[in-house]
Design brief:
Order of helices and strands: EEEHEHHHHHHHHHH
Strand order of the largest sheet: 3-2-1-4
Strand content: 5-15%
Amino acid sequence: MDGIITAVEAQVRRGGRRSNVYVDGRFAFAVSTEIAASLRVGSAVNSEAVTRLLDEDQRARCYDAALRFLGARPRSEREIRDRLARHEFAASMVDSTIERLRRIGLVDDTAFAEYWVEQRSTHRPRGGRLIKQELRAKGIDAEVASAALPADGDEAEGAYRAAARKAQSLRLLDERTFRQRLGGFLQRRGFDYEATRTAVNRHWAEASQQ
């Protein structure tokens, strides 16, 4: 594609974020407005220059897509890679985007694992076994996942909080049924035997006093 740039026009339907470039009076390609700002009407372009511009544009789009995905919450590296792959970005562009995000601290699986455990502990308590499964499903290394899990005492406290509403609904049952149902509830949420036993004992003691 050799010729002279005859026009650079912002795309209205894209809110001006992308621009159409015309060569010799015909539409040739589209790039981000930031990249288009470096082009001048009347300048000559050739196929090699256009290839570089389109490559730069794709890299910018890949990076922007990753940032949008990160806007809702932190993500693991695998989550970001999977999302960018669904957008069909080239593997080399995904790699360079991940490296760029890693340099500025937006991709950090250790920090992500700690974030995930904290969120689970605060909002939706789960046992260490289940949390580890969730982290592994998100591509977190087994050692990193294990290191982020709460200590035994914290897990018991998490089990107690996770069972609070359920225990309230079971408070009128006999002790054996209360323990069976509440214990099963906690085990299905990944809490280990010791944390479950401790939490069930606490809730039964409280229910007995009501």
